[in-house]
Amino acid sequence: MKVSVIIPVYNAEKFLGVCLESILIQTLQDFEVIVVDDCSTDNSVNVAESFLEKFGGRLKIISLPENTGSGAVPRNVGLEHAQGKYIFFVDNDDLLIDDALETLYNFAEEYQADVVYMEKFFTCDEEIIPKNLTVSVWREVDLIDEPTLEPNDLAKRVEKFLAPKFYWAPWAKFLRRDFLLDNKIFLPQMTIADDVIQTLEIICLAKKILRVPTPLYVWRTNQASWYRRKRSPEQMIKFRTSPLITGLEYLDEFMRGLAFFKKNPVLRLQVLNFFALMQLDNMTAALNELDSTEVYEIFLREFSTAGSSQPALISYLLVMNSLYRKELTK
After folding, report:
1. In this predicted structure, what is the pLDDT of residue 225?
2. CA 306 to chain centre
């Protein structure tokens, strides 16, 4: 089998059917689809089941025993069950251009790439059947106009990661399954930012990364998605503190095991700093809406719950960092 398409699902009844239809009509038909349901409370599973006959045995539906609150776990479960030579993660509210799988597969085979990375993609509105597609890019820098292999210089790759010039969305990468399994590359069990960590692992461990200029994926700007839902200041701080705690531990453990980072401690520190600031920057508005005492108590609870040996000290340092950054912006 050429490709395994893995779709994590949670309360996706509105868009899942259109997503599956876009896969059903692919010009490359040697694929399987693995839908992993994270205990949806709507009709998502029923929608998926309605496609079983249409896919003629190529659709698997896996239901997790309890809700994980993360896209990482369903994707990892899908990877463990996948049989295809290549893996493609698709979000449940997005779509594929009809020749996406064929084009990505041919690119991967021609260049014998571990990773085919799409630097361009389409965006669409929240209409169930989108009317207008717009070509978008992650960063409008160093765009290519033909397939290009990334240099093997790891320092340059890490510097591009920090720029950042790699988009970390799982769907931006078409991945060789054996590459992932041989290197034990699974998404960290986190609520968010797990894809940032996996992207670093991929660019550090892949022998061949092929960048392609062809937009093949349609990303829906769904404002009702779990990631973009409106949160109170306290909820936002908690939402971003969780990956701050576990993400730094994952990153540090991964980099500690690579000789490259032992020889380049400055880059190792820059990676940790980049990840931490990403979480802090995304909670800036929430931090500014609460006074420092409230923020300290939130951090203290979160780090204490996570089992930190120095929750008070870490909470204090984070509050001081927030106050310092606020002063700089005045």
Report:
1. 63
2. 23
